[in-house]
Amino acid sequence: MSSVSSDKIYLDNLAVGLEFHSGEQPVEADQIIAFASQFDPQPFHLDAEAAKGTFFQGLVASGWHTMAITMKLIVESVPFADGIIGAGGEISWPRPTRPGDTLYVRSSVLEITPSRSKPDRAIVTVECLTFGQDDEVRQKFTTKLVAFRKKD
Amino acid sequence: MSSVSSDKIYLDNLAVGLEFHSGEQPVEADQIIAFASQFDPQPFHLDAEAAKGTFFQGLVASGWHTMAITMKLIVESVPFADGIIGAGGEISWPRPTRPGDTLYVRSSVLEITPSRSKPDRAIVTVECLTFGQDDEVRQKFTTKLVAFRKKD
């Protein structure tokens, strides 16, 4: 398996097995609370004390905060020439992100399906695993991206 | 099909077919750009002029911004007593959210699967459709939530 991290790449350069490694992003309690206040205002994302009596037994990041940080790390590390254009995907959180965690993402090309109707593009299935500093998976995300051939 | 919008509900009160309707949330260009600057810094999410030459032919919200707004609307409209605790889900964006759109969410209970090992809870599959002011779907999200029975 190859690893790529800098040059812009086109569909022409993509291959199953190609991997991309992101940088690291620390996640602190104040960021968790700020994101949740705006988008996921629930006790276990807003207040460490209130979170103790919940399912999570402590403050945890919204799963969508973990996903949003993951997206930033993907944009920085998966250099598709025309951008990261996702049609959708499947997501799961084996364990939550907690204050003090440092996240990084490994993205792997699983499948490339050329478009039948539009020969300039393909759907590329990419698995993006988000790890913490303990190398335990915080999020599994498998997405279908649109990738384009280099224009002449 | 019933519609519920206020009281806190437990697993005991849930039934397949139950629907929840959210309020409305307008989405403006400055919010789209602010979210994308932090989490999805790509030309089609950051700059209306630069976005014209891209796949989207204009400024569009990050799909994760649509999801984050959807989550806020779900938290406000799906009153699970112990909170919205998601194990994961499937997401797709039939069309992007654009500046000036007003979003609302309809959530429907599709399936209830009692836990075999823990009789106090079940996995509840909920489909959350995010619509724009034109009633066209911006996002389809199907999630598996944990719901608990009322404690004695």
Question: What does this molecule look like?
Answer:
Two copies of one chain form a homodimer. Chain A is elongated, with a radius of gyration of 17 Å. With 152 residues, chain A is α+β, with helices and mostly antiparallel strands. Chain A is 22% helix and 32% strand. Chain A has a single domain, classed as Thiol Ester Dehydrase, Chain A, CATH 3.10.129.10. In chain A, a hairpin with a 6-residue loop joins strand 4 (102-114) and strand 5 (121-131). The first copy, chain A, contains four helices and six strands. Mean pLDDT of chain A is 94; it is low at 1-5. The two termini of chain A are 29 Å apart. Chain A has helices at residues 29-39, 43-46, 48-51, 63-77; strands at residues 19-21, 25-26, 86-92, 102-114, 121-131, 137-148. In chain A, strands 1, 2, 3, 4, 5 and 6 form a six-stranded antiparallel β-sheet that branches. The A-B interface holds A 35, 38-44, 54-55, 62-64, 67-69, 71-72, 75, 82-93, 140, 146 and B 35, 38-44, 54-55, 62-64, 67-69, 71-72, 75, 82-93, 140, 146.
